[in-house]
Design brief:
The chain has 230 residues and is an alpha/beta fold. 37% of the residues lie in helices and 16% in strands. A five-stranded mixed beta sheet has the order 3-2-1-4-5, sandwiched between helices. Strand 2 and strand 3 form a beta hairpin. Helix 4 packs across helix 5.
Length: 230
């Protein structure tokens, strides 16, 4: 479905959007144009650079704390703006949050299997996560898969949207080149709970482990990798 959406040209005069969706077999009401972080103003991009730097050092800061820090540094921002920019960058505080939302009934959620597990060999545990990177004309999303024993990056992909396809591509490459892990750990992001991603893991008889809500440190090795990268 995401590939079909990329073929839609909403600004085209002919054929019109409704006709384009019909030709591609898309429901018009289900189509949307994903916002691009690269479309942010120069001022917002500078602000996002600073949010990135603060968050890398203090990943437990939420929008309230980040707003306070930015104001002390002289930025004229409110929490609503900071929260919107954090959401655009895919940032979330690792501090536990109230249970104000529930997973979609069709979303696959699995138990965290790695508490107290001793990592003794390659391909015992793999994990993955998504972060964002500042590029010349905006931002890109990076997914990487890592082996917990060797800390080796098994595969990675860049994308300008937070879709599922680039995560599936990275997983497929890692399996083809490095074999099959016993356990695969992710967070509960929609990319990793999608049917396409879960189906590949089940096909290879890989045990699935997922971080608890708001517990980014359950996936500590990939979090450390992002910190080193940034």
């Amino acid at each position: 479905m995401s590939v079909k959406r990329t073929l839609v040209e909403p600004d085209a005069k002919s054929p019109r959007l409704r006709r384009q969706c019909a030709l591609l077999g898309l429901n018009r009401s289900s189509w949307y144009a994903p916002a691009s972080v690269g479309d942010e103003s120069a001022e917002n991009q500078r602000l996002m650079d600073r949010i990135n730097a603060i968050y890398t050092d203090h990943p437990f800061y939420g929008s309230r704390k980040l707003t306070a820090v930015l104001r002390r540094e002289g930025y004229r921002v409110n929490r609503k703006r900071v929260r919107r920019l954090m959401r655009a960058m895919g940032l979330m505080s690792i501090a536990p949050k109230p249970n104000t939302s529930r997973p979609h009934p069709q979303q696959a959620v699995y138990l965290y299997l790695l508490r107290g597990v001793v990592i003794e060999r390659p391909n015992q545990v793999w994990s993955t996560d998504i972060t964002y990177l500042r590029i010349e004309r905006g931002w890109a999303y990076l997914v990487a898969l890592i082996d917990w024993h060797s800390r080796y990056v098994l595969a990675w992909r860049l994308s300008n949207t937070m879709d599922t396809a680039f995560c599936v591509d990275a997983l497929t490459e890692a399996l083809e080149q490095h074999g099959t892990p016993e356990i695969f750990n992710t967070d509960q992001g929609s990319q990793f709970t999608s049917a396409a991603f879960i189906e590949i893991l089940n096909h290879h008889h890989i045990r699935i482990s997922m971080d608890g809500k708001g517990r980014a440190l359950d996936n500590i090795f990939i979090e450390r990798r992002w910190r080193s990268l940034k």
